[in-house]
Amino acid sequence: SRDFAKAMNVGLATPAYAVGTDHPILSWQDPNAEVIAPVLVSQLTLSAETLTVYLGETAQLTATVNEDAENKTLTWTSSDTTIATVDETGLVTPVAAGEATITVSSNDGSGKTATCTVTVAEKPVVVYGDLNGDASVTAADAIMTYAIANGKMTTATEAQVAAADVNGDGNINAADAIIIYSYANGKITQFPAEAN
Asked: What SS3 state is found at 6?
């Protein structure tokens, strides 16, 4: 019609075609209609900025975006897949010793990213009971374990904490100190953690 033709001339109508026909269908656009822009990702954070992963293990990174973002889909990448890979859920799998950067990016065009530096290392060998590294288990190691259990030794290294957990329950307590003392005095010949 004449009205449709005028509408097309001023950009208020757009021609389309019905499926399987060559008959045009006109769709109308209201020039006064309010255009609502989508809510983009404005905040993107990771659960860790640095991470150490031992060979043979995996680590899970979690990404968080602002709640009102309409498109929360993300893309995960690794700067060096010969060192560590990452899947679409943020699960990091080590490949070889070294360092790689894991990046998570928004998919909504906002350009938001977050990164985590991942260090891949060989898992240290745990020598149960030998906290001071003198290649023997003595009463001194039991004392150090008791100090860790009571929060008196706050500078204990990761290796010392692992060595102190001689009962293998994941906690350092007085029981571990007693077991180490018993081992040092020949009362037992094997730590419970070694039997697990």
From this structure: helix
Amino acid occupying residue 7? A
Q: What is the CA radius of gyration of the chain?
A: 31
Strand partners, 28: 13
Give the up-direction half-sphere exposure of residue 104: CA atoms within 13 A in the CB hemisphere.
27
DSSP single-letter state for residue 51: E
Neighbours of 153 (CB within 10 A): 18
Which helix (DSSP H) or strand (DSSP E) does residue 33 occupy?
none
Name the helix (H) or strand (E) containing 5: helix 2-9
DSSP string, 96-109: SSEEEEEEEEESSS
Q: Identify any residues that bridge with 92 across adjacent strands, giving them in sequence order.
A: 59, 86
Residue 20 clears pLDDT 70, i.e. is over it: no
pTM: 0.60
> Strands across the sheet with 84-86, in order?
59-60, 91-94, 84-86
Q: Are 73 and 40 in contact (CB under 8 A)?
A: no
Q: pLDDT tens digits for 125-173?
A: 889 999 999 999 999 999 999 999 999 999 999 889 999 999 999 999 9
DSSP per residue over 41-67, as a string?
P--EEES-SEEEEETT--EE--EEE-T
Distance CA 128, CA 195 (A): 12
